[in-house]
Amino acid sequence: MGLSMTNILHPERYQGAKRRYPYFEGWYYKLVDASEQHRVAVICGTYTGPTPATSHAFVQFMDGITGEVAYYRYLSEDFRTEAGDFEVHIGPNRFRIDRIDLQLEGPDRTVEGSLRFHGVTPWPVRLWSPGVMGWYAWVPFMECYHGVLSLDHSTEGMLRINGTAVDFTGGRGYTEKDWGRRFPVAWVWFQSNHFETPGTSVTASVAIVPWIRSAFRGFIVGLWHAGNLYRFTTYAGGAIEQLAVDPETVEWVLRNRRYRLQMCIRRTEAGLLYAPDLEDMTGRVAETMLSTAEVRLTRLDDPDVQPILAGTARNGALEVVGDINRLTSQVSPALRRNSG
Length: 340
Hints:
By secondary structure, this protein is mainly beta. The chain has one domain (5-328). It is 3% helix and 57% strand. The chain has helices at residues 5-8, 324-328; strands spanning 23-32, 39-48, 56-63, 69-74, 79-81, 87-90, 93-96, 99-105, 110-118, 125-126, 129-130, 144-161, 164-167, 171-180, 186-192, 201-211, 214-225, 228-233, 239-245, 249-255, 259-266, 271-276, 281-299, 309-322. The strands form three sheets. Strands 1, 2, 3, 4, 5, 6, 7, 8, 9, 12, 13 and 14 form a twelve-stranded antiparallel sheet that branches. Strands 15, 16, 17, 18, 19, 20, 21, 22, 23 and 24 form a ten-stranded antiparallel sheet that branches. A two-stranded antiparallel ribbon has the order 10-11. The protein is globular, with a radius of gyration of 19 Å. It starts with a helix and ends in a 12-residue tail after the last helix. The relative contact order is 0.16.
């Protein structure tokens, strides 16, 4: 599958103009109101399946409190993008980096309204490390690509959900995306931008990544705190010291050359999101938006000094999917470069 250099340097844009089956692309918006009583995820995207009947555009709406998911299916031709910019239209719905406009109608749920986002904070993009994937973004045969479009931002506006108005003004948001052939066989993903310290955000993912004739355990973790992005990634020489998953918690400890990041994430009941496979979009991704986590960032050279961050993450989104035993066991190490 060919790659556009211009698009690689703009991961927020639609990447799939010249790609054929199997292919998917989706943008994920997480939204929490100021009272933290309303938490929703809005996912828009497009799926190219093995037949015209399975190919379609879609919008998903997840109630993060109840776990209920509504799936709105559209024709492929209802998916439109703006040239040279990130602006996606799916039927009457519009999605940008700084706003979304929704007009969703279904048998179980209607959602209408507009939200604006202020202070959008993307993962930095550089030529040698174009976004969250680092130099792997330049590899043309990856199974799945990932982008973090905003680690944290404020929200403004209102959504009317089944006729009830929910004001998101003063809330917080997070935006990311995925695209490629299909999702990994196993992954853990966690995100929260609700800490005691406003403006702090963590996004963390680890997955089994196919690589030529083998596979490795790849991870991308970023902690945004006090205006600094602390990165723990496979491609920049980071390491996982511990990854343990049981029915109640995910224990995850990472380090890079200078810092150690410890996370104890509590698991809760989850709803099922639709995700791409080789046949269709199927409901197989269990996600919760009710997780909490104890997060601690310390310096390797002097771990006894005051930690850079020691706090509790609230309103956490968590996915634990697939062959987790394979994910937590030792697998082939990733190729590493001193970049990023």
